[in-house]
Amino acid sequence: MVKITKALPAVKKDFHIILEAMSEGIFEITSEGKIVFANSAAISLCNIPKERLLGSIFARLFSEDAGQRVADLLKAPNEKLEALTVDSPLVLNEYLVKIKTLFGDKKEDTRVVVLSDITEHERAREIIRLRNREQQLHTQTVQAFTIWLIDEDTGELVCEQASGDYGETLRGWRLAPGEGLAGWVVQHGESSITPNTYSDKRHYKEVDQVIGENMQSILTVPLHVKGDTIGVLQVVDTETERFDKNHLALIETLAGSAAIAIENARLYEKARQEISIRKQAEEALRESENKYRTVLEANPDSVIVYDMEGKVTYLNPTFTKVFGWTIGECLGKKMDMFVPEENWPETNEMIKKVLAGENITGIETFRHTKAGDIIPVSISGAIYHDRDGNPVGSVVNLRNIYEQKKLEAQIHQVQKLEAIGTLAGGIAHDYNNLLMGILGNASLMTFDLDSNHPHYAKLKNIEKYVQSGADLTKQLLGFAKGGKYEVKPIDINDVVGQSSEMFSRTKKEVRIHRNFQENIWSVEADPNQVEQVLLNLYVNAGQAMPGGGELYLQTENVTLDDSYTRHFSVKAGDFVKISVKDTGIGMDEKTIKRIFDPFFTTKDMGRGTGLGLASAYGIIKNHGGIINADSIINKGTTFNVFLP
Q1: Cα(25)–Cα(50) distance, integer angstroms
Q2: pTM of whole model > 0.70?
Q3: ∠ CA(90), CA(92), CA(93), 5° rounding?
Q4: Which of 3, 313, 548, 611 could form a cystine bridge with 475, CB 3.0-4.6 A?
Q5: Highest mean pLDDT out of 18-27, 126-135, 286-295, 374-383
Q6: How many CB atoms lie within 10 A of CB 11?
Q7: Phi-psi category of residue 332: left, alpha or beta, with phi > 0 → left and psi -120 to 50 → alpha
Q8: Is 70 exceeded by the pLDDT of residue 422?
Q9: How many helices (H) and strands (E) does the chain have?
Q10: C-alpha distances in angstroms, 634 versus 41, 113, 134?
Q11: pLDDT in tens, 575-604
Q12: Which comes out higher in pLDDT, residue 422 or 324?
């Protein structure tokens, strides 16, 4: 045995296939009682996945009493390196097992444990023992015996087994607690010899009436398991004074074996039921996990799951798509790089609320992406618990609201320009009336003066300035949706081509690239106003490229749905799209928000009125269309015009 023990480490390394093929369960246990190796048979006996079995405490695989016996065995000193065993079988799940320990690797201070499945062997031995005892009773002319067990729910005694002519009749019979000889023995926990049932008031006479036979002598013995009475064994005979102390000793021995067999059967059935329930629970858990994982992975929002220390345990695919980090890069790590410095105060406040058990919903803040961008997000989060109700981590949902914020800004811009347009329209009309009064009076005065009069030239200057003011009011009225003067079907390709040709003659340093869609849809519009819009866009593009550059003009037929057009208060449908793209200096986000505001300009004082894009906006809006812009600093600007 010593040689075998010393050879075990080599066997484990070199003959792993042999260990896996053995029918006995082979474990290697550390000095702390942890399992570091288990072969296939061992895993099957334990009915636990290998990854959970390894590292667990071996003694905890058994019930409390049996586990203590196993723990004591593993701690027992064994200087002679002999095999040590637990004398009686142990229950492991639905199996009865015999345990043997050997010394393993002395350097690593481990032991090898061998579990042998003796379930069927023990059952066969128990059946033989019971049959031998039963035969002994029959040879002594015993008429019948019954086994009564306590119903744990009601406390009643139930006849579970009965032999003799009336076995079938008695089987399933119930006695109230304390009723009959069987009930008395259960209550007092001691055996009883009844030589004559007629003189013993404890006897339950109704049994005689049911089976139609007098039971003269009854020997009743309690069935004990670990000090508890679980029922009684009764031996019955039709003769009086049939039993004595010798019979009592024999029946008590039989009762001890019967009690163990019954308890083992109960444990086996209980273990089988528990395993069935556990398997059902595990299957339900797997189904639940798969369902919720599918929900998380299909979620259009980013989801992060943290443990209680704030380390990542899960990221859904949307998170990787939006923010760039993968689960492999983040697993087991904190996401400090994820939070912009200026957003840490509000983030810490959110963390405190979630860890305190408070749910947070729709908190808007900003987060970094792996690429270094900062995007606006709406955060919701909550703590989650294990089966026992203990908090084990948090789930955080991050919704990318960049497009939402962009649309909100567009809506705000539209509303602002609508309000300014209404105001500008009223002012322009009043201002135009004043100018017409000044122009009329100046014209009348010139009729009465000779061209050589010293005031004549001044009056003509007044007329000139009034005309400039009138042009200004015309632009204001254009912004304020003043009207479409000559609406007719027009070919946008012709309008864009002619206007760009005219512009190219004044800006030769700008190279124009045209890409017009064939069979462009016809548009109902004022060609002069559309041309004014385009020239304003060309002029802005040219000013954004003082040293020259590229100007890309494109037309195409597009269909816009309500999800896009409703933000501009425009009906969905078919549109002709005109794109004017330059390669100029571009604009920042702050400037983009104001480019359509009246009198807003980025030019030097005296070089612009700030009404060019404002009037372009009013003209397109008045045609039921959309105009917007996108720009990147040092890369250029693109204006998109949509005409229905």
Answers
A1: 13
A2: no
A3: 145
A4: 611
A5: 374-383
A6: 14
A7: left
A8: no
A9: 20, 24
A10: 71, 75, 103
A11: 999 999 999 888 888 787 777 776 666 654
A12: 324
Token couple for 4? 């075998």
* Type of residue numbered 219: L
Please tell me what DSSP assigns to residue 34.
B
Map tokens 């109230």 to a residue. 176
* Three-class DSSP category at 293: helix
Question: In this structure, what are the phi and psi dihedrals at residue 597, rounded to the nearest 5 degrees?
Answer: -70, 135
Nearest to 89 by CA among 250, 353, 268: 268
- Give the burial class of 147: count Cβ atoms within 10 A of its Cβ; 0-12 exposed, 13-18 middle, 19 or more buried: buried
- The per-residue pLDDT for range 252-292, each reduced to its tens digit, is 877 877 787 887 877 777 778 888 887 887 777 777 777 77
Backbone dihedral angles phi then psi of residue 214, each to the nearest 5 degrees? -80, 135
Identify any residues that bridge with 4 across adjacent strands, giving them in sequence order: none
Number of CB atoms found within 10 A of residue 270's CB = 12
Cite the DSSP H helix spans in 215-316: 245-298
Structure tokens that stand for 417 in this block? 């320009």
Which tokens in the block code for residue 281? 């629970």
Element (H, E) at 488: strand 488-490
Determine the straight-line distance between the first and last CA of the chain, rounded to whole angstroms: 96
Judged by phi (left if over 0) then psi (alpha if -120 to 50, else beta), residue 140 lies in alpha
CA distance 618 to 418: 9
Residue 330: name the closest of 308, 310, 311 by CA. 311
* Phi-psi domain of 155 (left: phi exceeds 0; alpha: psi -120 through 50; beta: other): left
Residue 429, token pair as written in the block = 């009309």
CA 176 – CA 166 distance, rounded (Å): 21
DSSP category for residue 155: -
Instruction: Collapse the DSSP code of 512 into the 3-class scheme (helix H, G, I; strand E, B; otherwise coil) and give the result.
Output: strand
3-state SS assignment for residue 117: strand
